[in-house]
Design goal:
alpha+beta; seven-stranded antiparallel sheet; four-stranded antiparallel sheet; 9 helices; 19 strands; flat; disordered N terminus
Length: 486
């Protein structure tokens, strides 16, 4: 039994070897152009072989003949018939070998059998001998066709999933590109805005500089004109004196006593009549005008020309919570100890200690500053005319409030809260109605704190809240700073 098995294995080995040899021989008889057995094979000068019709058709009407395999060029078309290769091709055709068989079928490297199964456990192709071996014992197998369908379906599912992900990523890519484009457009618009605003300031300063220089030139010309006139009169008197000195000198040289005395009385009278002297006074330029605090003077002039300049706001008593105390000029507000007896009206805040500005805005750009001092709680910003004013409030953009606030010991995320570590004495509020912008600044150094954006559709009012007063703390006032016209 054992000898029969050995014999069968040897026969199988011989058959495999013979098959491999035949396959190898058939490969030698294949034309590299048509990939079929040679018909009328010819050899080129470089040693490569082709069917006569294949190489002739390949060359066609080319001026330079070259080998399709090695690219060697030949001045003449020397095609030598290869009879041995023709006989080998004929034998291969008689044995009915398939010249394309190797490319269409795969064989097991270990058993030299055609691969017809797929091992799901090891996820690789195997032959029937591999299936029966110890290596694949207890593994799961599938016919290649069935495995192809199963894994093809899995790949189709994966492809669908990847297609969805690709679509999502494409949308994200487009959105990111749009966002980047918007940032670039916004940056370009802001650059134009910055250049325009500073150009206006440059123009104001340039006009101020040119005006001062013109006034200086005019004053210089006026003073010099007066001084030059006096100088001319001095020079004329000097010439007259010198002329009289010459005559006196001449008289002194007179030797005749009678003639000398006769002319002396007349000469003395002429000298005394013309001896008056002009007064010379020092006239200086207006140094105080041209060498004073020029930068401050220019700033004072500029503050009335720039837009927006710090506005002179006032508070509206009709909106103030009854506990609030307003200053006589209505620019300052603080929290009183007791509730005042004020008439309740629909515009008045009754729970939050808040008050609005007297003037509302429906257009333009506006800026004002509020002194908060060392208060531990306060709210500053803007609000719509139609905001809720009764009961407990939730001041945030969704309810019509765009505010900056500080509240001791409480973290709030509904609207912008300042950290207690950030020491601010004065808050700047900027409103651009058409631009839909509300920005806050540390007015001491104009550093930016926060910006809200919104499309405003109704009147916007300045909004103030003094905050609570606990244990005597936070009793200070909120004061609107008056800068314009100082």
């Amino acid at each position: 039994m054992q000898s029969e098995t050995v014999l069968n294995q040897e026969v199988l080995r011989v058959n495999m070897v013979s098959r491999q040899q035949l396959q190898s021989l058939s490969e030698e008889a294949i034309c590299p152009i048509c990939l079929d057995f040679f018909i009328e094979p010819v050899t080129l000068d470089c040693g490569h072989n082709f069917c006569r019709s294949c190489i002739t058709q390949c060359w066609g009407k080319k001026e330079i003949n070259s080998c399709p395999e090695c690219r060697g060029e030949f001045p003449e078309r020397n095609l030598r018939i290869n009879r041995a290769l023709a006989n080998l091709a004929e034998k291969a055709r008689e044995l009915k070998l398939n010249p394309k068989e190797k490319g269409s079928k795969l064989y097991c490297e270990k058993h030299q059998e055609e691969l017809k199964l797929f091992c799901e456990t090891d996820r690789r192709l195997i032959c029937f001998s591999c299936r029966d071996s110890r290596e694949h014992k207890s593994h799961n197998f599938l016919p290649i066709t069935e495995a192809f369908e199963i894994y093809k379906q899995q790949l189709e599912c994966s492809l669908k999933s990847l297609t969805k992900k690709q679509s999502v990523m494409i949308q994200k890519e487009l959105k990111q590109k749009v966002n980047m484009s918007e940032v670039k457009e916004q940056s370009s618009s802001l650059q134009t805005h910055i250049t325009s605003e500073f150009s206006k300031m440059h123009q104001i300063l340039t006009e101020k500089e040119q005006r001062l220089l013109r006034d200086l030139r005019e004053e210089e010309e006026r003073i010099l004109e007066t001084m030059e006139k006096t100088l001319r009169e001095i020079q004329e008197n000097l010439n007259s004196i010198e002329e009289k000195m010459s005559k006196v000198q001449e008289a002194m040289e007179q030797k005749d006593e009678l003639i000398f005395l006769k002319e002396e009385a007349c000469r003395k009278r002429r000298i005394s009549d013309d001896a008056s002297m002009l007064s010379v006074s020092a006239v200086a330029l207006s140094i105080g005008k041209f060498k004073g605090p020029l930068q401050y003077t220019a700033w004072r002039e500029m503050i009335n020309s720039i837009n927006p300049a710090p506005a002179s706001l006032t508070l509206d008593p009709s909106t103030a919570n009854p506990r609030l105390i307003l200053s006589e000029d209505r620019t300052s507000v603080r929290l009183g100890e007791a509730r005042q007896q004020l008439s309740n009206n629909p515009h008045q805040f009754d729970t939050w200690v808040s008050v609005m500005g007297s003037e509302g805005f429906t257009s333009g750009r506006h800026y004002w500053e509020v002194e908060v001092g060392n208060k531990t709680e306060w709210v500053v910003g803007v609000a719509k005319e139609s905001v809720k004013r009764k009961g407990d409030l939730d001041p945030k953009p969704e309810t019509g409030y765009w505010v900056l606030w500080r509240e001791h010991g409480k973290d709030c995320f509904t609207f912008t809260t300042l950290p207690s570590s950030l020491k601010i004495q004065k808050v700047g509020v900027y409103l651009d109605f058409e631009g839909g912008q509300v920005s806050f600044y540390n007015a001491d150094n104009m550093s930016h704190l926060h910006t809200f954006t919104h499309t405003f559709t109704e009147r916007i009012f300045p909004y103030f809240d003094t905050g609570r007063c606990l244990n005597g703390e936070n009793s200070g006032s909120l004061t609107i700073c008056r800068i314009k016209g100082h």
